[in-house]
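step: validate -> pass
step: tokenize input -> pass
step: predict -> running
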Amino acid sequence: MSKKESLDQLIQKAKKDLEAYSIDTDIHNFDIKEDYRRRFDSNELTFVVSNKLSLKNNYTSKSSEIDDSKIEKFTNFQWAGEGNAYSNRLVSVTNRGYAYVFNSDNGNIICSENFGSGILNACAIEQTENQMFAVGGFDGAINLKNILINNDRRDNETGTKKFTGHQGSVSAIQFMNTAFMISASLDSVLLLWDINSQGKIVSTYREHTSEFTCLDVNDVNGNIFATGSGDTTCKIWDIREKKACVSTFQGSDSSINCVKFLPGRLSTLAAGSEDSSIRLYDLRAVKELGNYKKDVNDNNSVNSIGFSKSGIILFASTAENNTLSFWNIFGKDIPFCRYKYDKGNETGLLRASINADKTKIAFINGNEIVIIK
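step: predict -> pass
step: emit ->
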């Protein structure tokens, strides 16, 4: 049997497995010519934090002898937007105050910046031109920087701007467009910034009664975004409205850790909670459409969620195990398949996210950002 015939048989078998769950493999696949499940047997590209602390070799060979608090680890990342020559960029931040912009095709560092020794736990890259990124951390400040094509070129126009206004740690940042960004904090305050000014706050929102944990700007209309909070609710916002908070959804009795709009749509939102559940909401009917659990006995909190290009496939990660879970949103409320990352040095996956053109999934495992292509 030829290799081509063997591959065709594998593809057809996997397609039948997926179609048994009523999943149209011609719609949701990362690559239309290959089935979804086989993608996880493909090559993995791993980003390792640069050896800024001279701990890389020790960490891999003598990890038990090292103070874990001194190891530089990734805390967050975001993919660039789709549609131009810089769509392969990925911005990330670490617990040692560094930000890195990677080329996600080959792992090369395009730009790196030291913002001090404090922990950075939020970052974003502007999604239209992919030329600006912002980072935030425990000190409540947000730094915005242009990505320099030539790192030797430094002038006033391409320098860093600092935005101060939060009284607590910055938990999330997103660009709404090239002129405005939104930031959320553990101080229970949401701030809308004019990024063309030096630190001008356009609006302040305080509708959540506890700390902000997450936010997501809609990819169809940048005026609309969603937030999640420790007050167990997620809210929908429209900055064009006099009362910007236009809808509130009550989740479970636990904190909402992550929110994500269905790609290319204004009407559907998913929210992952501390109680391990993911709820799907319809913004038009203002009601819950579905409730998904990782497993009957799996009570680990959900820390990130995402969708395939069609929106049919929902996936999630947790900090308590090294497994990504995948659901068919029109199928059962339990995962139809899982991907276990068994090469990591730590337990738990953070910030699992799919890139703009829906061809790669990335997640954090300690001092690595792993990309599944």
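step: describe -> Helices lie at 3-19, 25-28, 56-61.
step: cleanup -> pass
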